[in-house]
């Protein structure tokens, strides 16, 4: 678990449908968020969720060949969680939904003062797609992550939508538009600010 000393840590769960080593717009925008986090001395790690066997279910460990427990440990150790997802058919990817369902188990994982394990951690979101729907996807993820216990910072998201019914992806851009770059940097900076405040002052005990 994280302590009140040492550098902040961030984990990106990239929820692309493409396994490694395929190029991924979702991973690229996550790395752009991490660029600012690293400038602020945050230690960062990327996990592409589809590379692992994340079993369906809402338990911390579904047994057999379930690889979520290893990812879960990384989530528990991180101060900041970034969920990065593409938009498919107007919704987060199916991989994203699987991750959210597994995070649901943390509602019953309490600390010694009755707080769910994710209370005190920060979550931000990045979204890419060449169709509309980024605002809805962000809203869905914010609600789910906040339900589990994560705190959402001001302007805690960044997204890029390409032209409707076209084939250009975020990773195909010659240059990231200034508005997107600014939103990406702001989400990262605000996440660090909130994570530092939550280290200094925990939420009240639940019991």
From TrEMBL:
Signal peptide: none
Taxonomic placement: Bacteria, Bacillati, Actinomycetota, Actinomycetes, Mycobacteriales
One Pfam family, short name: FMN_red
Species, as recorded: Mycolicibacterium pallens
Organism domain of life: Bacteria
Descriptive protein name: NAD(P)H-dependent oxidoreductase
Domain NADPH-dependent FMN reductase-like: 11-152
